[in-house]
Structure to design on (778 residues):
């Protein structure tokens, strides 16, 4: 689910989810929709299911799901919840 | 601050922000797993799941119990959901319609609109649409739709809320029906209804109000309400409009003008009218025509007096019969004696014996007959007093005792079987009142007192009538020894139509009318009563301020007589005969029973020193004769003296008061008649 464009400032996001739990499913859908709309020059979105990779949670400092982490551009930022409030999410990600 | 501590501070701030965001997300139910720090594994939040299910169920419940139909379609206009309500409206089950295309549900004519709505539709629409039922019939609904978007913001279908318009239509019908009902009330009520705007222009009148004034409703609308009022009514309206503007309501008596110029007496109950914002937008008035009821009221007073007189008619007849019997018997006796005069037995009498015989056999019975006749005359005079019309509001000094005596004579037949009558009169001044009305009050009080006492034990009971002066007021009391009035009804005895008497005995108006009569002349009528001891009605009247009219100087009977030529006109031959008998020795008397003949004599140029004329005659009345003679010879008309059995109508009364000469009342006595005739011949 990654798109890349050479000239763009790299965008790398990681979404931690818990299997098919409803909030997680919504968060995935919302994250994709927001990214498709706003990072038209390309982005990288990683989905990490903590049910499959529980060890990654504490290692990455994740306490709840769903949590979206912006890895790039730095500094890292965390956004917690279903990402339903599009404006709030964009604000946290550093705008479009 | 070192760069190291600054970095640490920033890290702490960030973690605090994250913690805050976490809590917020938890509270809003957006979290589905928490990483357990001991097991280092994510734990699913069962509670969150439950909450979700619960909220989903709530949502479903709302959707299923909604009064509105709820319908969702996907981006291809295929039905994805329909609640039971809407499926029911269309005659389907909710399962049946899943997957059904929009075109099978929305009627063809509507599809175009629906399509354009969907295309243009980022915004919800509301429209009246026709849907198609399962059986093919149309269902008219009001439809609000809103487009739905998926997470990516793409059009994902629409949600529609549907209300059955049949119900709206029913509500509209109900509203129309209720309006119709109000219109009917407004148009059929016997009261006039009128609304005016703040400047006093008529906005609406109902048919009844227009009829009251003789107009068509549309002739009145737009005109100033005051143009239909009397001057007095306009003053009332001006004050009323002002109070309406202040938001006050009240009722007044007022006057309107009928198209034909007649004055209409009305009672107006007015209230201010406000719009939804509370602004004064005019007044509404309910107008009741009281012309009739005002007239009825005065008629009731007459009829009550007539009822009082009627009650007493039997008693009065009895009162008249006794003296009348005496008159007739005595006259028969005299006739018998005179018939025997020719006989021989008295021829031998000495002159002294003869005088004694004449006194015993003729003069004494004659005196008795005359005295009895005098009593009849009093009774008739009392009756005349009560027959006067109340419209004749003549007030003047009235002798209370005389009026009370008349009333007692009238009521005597009611009293005497029930109680002893005790009279206790002080020397009281005259009161300012109307004799007939005061008599009506006294008569009512006496009859009431009598009727309170059962018949039969007259010796044990008492009706006490007193008159005394208290300060400047004359107080008359009528007390009985009846059972008394219970305290719970004593406050109602002056109410109209309140009666304790049997049906047909009392109208319940007597005391109400008495109260009004007494109040009208500035007096007070009160009652006090004690159970077992009796009741006292008390009339307190202001002393007359006018000096009593000077008594006419006694007529000097002159022995010097002048012979005159007198015409007597009376339809009653008996009266002609007795007038002739009295006057013929001193005067030349011409008589006729027909006023037309009298007129003919005058027309022929015959001259009379005096014309004694009856007032009430068939064919031609005294009044008519007077006016005819006035045309022929005003001088001759001046010589007319009217002889009357009583001026019972207002017309005759006003006629008599306009005639300069005095009139002679029937019955008359011979000496007085001769004196009057002599006086006018001089």
């Amino acid at each position: 689910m990654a798109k890349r464009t050479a000239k763009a400032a790299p965008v790398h996001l990681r979404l931690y989810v818990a299997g098919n739990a409803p909030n997680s499913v919504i968060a995935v859908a919302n994250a994709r929709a927001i990214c498709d709309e706003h990072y038209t020059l390309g982005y990288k979105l990683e989905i990490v299911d903590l049910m499959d990779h529980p060890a990654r949670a504490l290692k990455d400092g994740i306490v709840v799901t769903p949590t979206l982490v912006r890895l790039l551009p730095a500094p890292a930022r965390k956004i917690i919840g279903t990402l339903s409030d599009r404006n709030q999410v964009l604000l946290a990600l550093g705008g479009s | 601050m070192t760069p190291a501590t600054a970095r640490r501070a920033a890290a702490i701030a960030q973690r605090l922000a994250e913690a805050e965001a976490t809590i917020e997300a938890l509270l809003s139910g957006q979290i589905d797993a928490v990483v357990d720090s001991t097991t280092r594994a994510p734990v699913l939040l069962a509670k969150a799941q439950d909450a979700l299910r619960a909220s989903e169920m709530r949502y479903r419940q709302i959707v299923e119990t909604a009064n509105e139909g709820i319908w969702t379609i996907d981006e291809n206009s295929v039905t994805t959901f329909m609640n039971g309500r809407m499926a029911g409206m269309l005659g389907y089950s909710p399962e049946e319609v899943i997957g059904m295309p929009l075109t099978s549900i929305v009627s063809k004519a509507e599809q175009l609109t629906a399509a354009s709505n969907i295309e243009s539709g980022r915004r919800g629409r509301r429209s009246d649409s026709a849907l198609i039922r399962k059986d093919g019939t149309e269902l008219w609904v009001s439809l609000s739709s809103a487009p739905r978007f998926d997470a990516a913001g793409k059009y994902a279908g629409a949600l529609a809320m549907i209300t059955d318009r049949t119900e709206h239509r029913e509500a509209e019908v109900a509203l129309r029906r209720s309006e119709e009902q109000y219109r009917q009330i407004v148009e059929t009520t016997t009261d006039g209804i009128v609304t005016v705007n703040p400047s006093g222009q008529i906005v609406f009148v109902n048919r009844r109000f227009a009829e009251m004034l003789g107009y068509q409703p549309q002739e009145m609308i737009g005109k100033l309400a005051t143009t239909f009022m009397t001057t007095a009514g306009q003053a009332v309206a001006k004050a009323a409009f002002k109070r309406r503007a202040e938001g006050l309501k009240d009722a007044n008596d007022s006057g309107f003008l009928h198209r034909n110029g007649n004055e209409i007496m009305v009672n107006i109950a007015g209230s201010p009218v406000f719009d939804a914002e509370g602004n004064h937008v005019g007044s509404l008035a309910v107008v009741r025509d009281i012309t009739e009821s005002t007239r009825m009221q005065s008629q009731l007073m007459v009829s009550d007096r007539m009822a009082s007189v009627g009650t007493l008619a039997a008693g009065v007849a009895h009162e008249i019969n006794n003296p009348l019997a005496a008159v007739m018997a005595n006259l028969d006796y005299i006739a018998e004696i005179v018939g025997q005069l020719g006989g021989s037995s008295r021829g031998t009498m000495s002159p002294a014996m003869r005088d004694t015989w004449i006194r015993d056999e003729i003069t004494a019975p004659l005196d008795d007959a005359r005295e009895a006749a005098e009593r009849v005359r009093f009774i008739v005079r009392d009756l005349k007093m009560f027959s006067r019309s109340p419209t004749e509001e003549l007030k003047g000094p009235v002798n209370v005792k005389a009026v009370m005596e008349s009333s007692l004579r009238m009521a005597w037949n009611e009293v005497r079987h029930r109680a002893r009558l005790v009279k206790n009169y002080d020397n009281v001044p005259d009161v300012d009142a109307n004799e007939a009305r005061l008599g009506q009050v006294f008569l009512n009080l006496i009859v009431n007192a009598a009727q309170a006492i059962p018949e039969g034990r007259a010796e044990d009971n008492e009706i006490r009538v007193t008159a005394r002066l208290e300060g400047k007021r004359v107080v008359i009391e009528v007390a009985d020894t009846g059972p008394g009035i219970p305290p719970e009804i004593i406050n109602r005895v002056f109410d109209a139509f309140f009666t304790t008497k049997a049906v047909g005995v009392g109208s319940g108006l007597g005391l109400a009318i008495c109260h009004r009569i007494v109040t009208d002349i500035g007096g007070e009528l009160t009652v006090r009563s004690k159970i077992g001891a009796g009741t006292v009605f008390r009339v307190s009247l202001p002393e007359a301020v006018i000096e009593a009219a000077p008594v006419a100087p006694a007529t000097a009977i002159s022995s010097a007589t002048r012979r005159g030529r007198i015409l007597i006109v009376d339809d009653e031959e008996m009266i002609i005969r007795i007038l002739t008998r009295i006057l013929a020795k001193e005067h030349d008397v011409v008589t006729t029973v027909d006023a037309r003949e009298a007129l003919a004599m005058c027309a022929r140029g015959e001259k009379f020193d005096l014309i004694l004329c009856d007032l009430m005659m068939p064919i031609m009345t005294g009044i008519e004769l007077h006016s005819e003679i006035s045309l022929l010879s005003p001088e001759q008309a001046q010589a007319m003296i009217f002889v009357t059995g009583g001026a019972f109508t207002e017309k005759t009364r006003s006629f008599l008061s306009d005639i300069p000469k005095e009139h002679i009342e029937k019955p008359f006595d011979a000496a007085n008649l001769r004196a009057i005739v002599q006086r006018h011949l001089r």
User: Anything to note?
Assistant: Chain A touches chain B through 31 residues (CB under 8 Å). Residues 1-6 of chain A have pLDDT under 50 and may be disordered. The helical segments of chain A are 22-38, 55-59, 86-93.
